[in-house]
Request: fold
Amino acid sequence: MNTLHLPTPPSEHIWIERNNQYDLQEMYEFISCRTIQIIRLNGLIIDSPNGEQLESPLMILDEEGKLTGKEINPIATHLMRACGFNDYAVGNVIVCDGGLIN
Reply:
């Protein structure tokens, strides 16, 4: 399964091929946080470089990122708004298939 890592400040997004689930510590380390928030991007389909599709993926982000002053993540924010969220994402974000989260 493919996973999309969206770093902040925006640079090249990173596609990662994963065969195992994320553990909580991995998510904390990439997102640089102590608590995470998980939202479903209903109706969104993202094509990966190898042709695999993420359908209605999960977005994992920093629950307290706005309170700690993290920078807005414009790509993640765009994905959220495309799914009807009237909010914005900050900091590093992971977008992945729900099967990769336990």
Notes: Residues 74-82 form the longest helix (9 residues). The chain has two helices and seven strands.
